[in-house]
């Protein structure tokens, strides 16, 4: 018997016109649409006149539902997985299902489409050759700070999803962990009526967000410039000490102190600072 396929289908992150022709074709043709929230997706599917059967598959039941989905696909049916918005599995349910499908040898086809992280990054003006998608930071203050501190020397552009009610606390944590001068970009309400991009140092963006309560509403992607490249392969501990010292003493002095402590070239450390 011919097996079916699991399709991963992105849906719009705001502007309904961002659904692709292929997504509509697949959603119309499948036997079942597995949706994170059937009521929420029902509105979208209604809008496009799609009447395929809906199943609720969310983070609390997807492990159990995976078995039933795989069985249906092995029987020849095709199933589309959608989330509330954007690309399923990207800070959304779907990983256990896709993993189980791959382990069972069930065909998985992903359609390209809307994703807030990629859309925001492409408009940010930050380097896109290397980026690290970090999803949501912890809502707990200490865990959030520790996670950011661990990224201090990461040179790739950092991309986070953040809730509007936490943005000011998160910017304060970014300032503490990565320094107030680190360049950040917030992409907000992307593809929607009040789409905005705020850019500047952490301090500048903190001021802009604090001064305008609209900037504390809606959906947002926080992007942070990576740490300066470590061209001279300076060991992580030396960099940490250098980062501490450079705010206390002049750059030349900081470079000299760290160089003598770690037996490194002061000139390399100085170039790194500036
Ligand atoms: N799977 C989705 C995707 O592909 O982008 C992300 C789902 S995650 C649960 C929702 C988060 O994505 C929001 O809290 C926000 O950080 C970000 N997001 C979603 N839509 C957005 C938009 N239109 N503008 C800015 N950020 C958005």
TrEMBL record:
Q: Which terms are listed as keywords in the entry?
A: Cytoplasm, Methyltransferase, rRNA processing, S-adenosyl-L-methionine, Transferase
What is its EC class?
transferase
GO cellular component annotations of the record: cytoplasm
List, for all copies, the residue spans of the domain called Tetrapyrrole methylase. Answer: 5-205
* CDD domains the UniProt entry points to: RsmI
Catalysed reactions, as listed in the record: cytidine(1402) in 16S rRNA + S-adenosyl-L-methionine = 2'-O-methylcytidine(1402) in 16S rRNA + S-adenosyl-L-homocysteine + H(+)
* EC nos: 2.1.1.198
One GO MF annotation is:
rRNA (cytosine-2'-O-)-methyltransferase activity
Q: Coiled-coil intervals in this record? A: none
Q: Which InterPro entries match?
A: 4pyrrol_Mease (IPR000878), 4pyrrol_Methylase_sf (IPR035996), 4pyrrole_Mease_sub1 (IPR014777), 4pyrrole_Mease_sub2 (IPR014776), rRNA_ssu_MeTfrase_I (IPR008189), RsmI_HTH (IPR053910), SAM_MeTrfase_RsmI_CS (IPR018063)
Q: Give residue ranges for domain RsmI HTH.
A: 234-271
Where in the cell does this protein reside? Answer: Cytoplasm
Function according to Swiss-Prot or TrEMBL: Catalyzes the 2'-O-methylation of the ribose of cytidine 1402 (C1402) in 16S rRNA.
Family under the similarity heading: Belongs to the methyltransferase superfamily. RsmI family.
Instruction: Give the protein name, as stated in the record.
Output: Ribosomal RNA small subunit methyltransferase I
């Amino acid at each position: 018997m011919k097996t079916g396929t699991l399709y991963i289908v992105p849906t719009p992150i705001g502007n309904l016109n961002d659904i692709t022709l292929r997504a509509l074709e697949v959603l119309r043709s499948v036997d079942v649409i597995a949706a994170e929230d059937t009521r929420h997706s029902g509105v979208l599917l209604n809008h496009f006149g799609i009447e395929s059967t809906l199943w609720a598959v969310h983070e609390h039941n997807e492990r159990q539902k995976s078995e039933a989905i795989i069985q249906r696909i092995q029987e020849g049916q095709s199933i589309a997985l959608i989330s509330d918005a954007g690309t399923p599995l990207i800070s959304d349910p779907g990983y256990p299902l896709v993993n189980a499908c791959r382990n069972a040898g069930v065909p998985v086809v992903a359609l390209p489409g809307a994703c807030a992280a990629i859309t925001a990054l492409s408009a940010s003006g930050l380097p896109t050759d290397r980026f690290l998608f970090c999803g949501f930071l912890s809502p707990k203050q200490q865990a959030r700070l520790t996670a950011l501190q661990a990224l201090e020397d990461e040179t790739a552009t950092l991309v986070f999803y953040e809730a509007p009610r936490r943005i000011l606390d998160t910017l304060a944590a970014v300032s503490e962990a990565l320094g107030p001068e680190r360049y950040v970009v917030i992409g907000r309400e992307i593809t929607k009526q009040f789409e905005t991009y705020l850019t500047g140092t952490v301090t500048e963006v903190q001021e802009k967000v604090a001064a305008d309560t609209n900037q504390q509403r809606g959906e947002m992607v926080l992007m942070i410039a990576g740490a300066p490249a470590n061209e001279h392969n300076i060991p992580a501990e030396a960099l940490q000490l250098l980062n501490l010292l450079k705010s206390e003493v002049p750059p030349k002095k900081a470079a000299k102190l760290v160089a003598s402590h770690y037996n490194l070239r002061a000139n390399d450390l100085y170039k790194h600072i500036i």
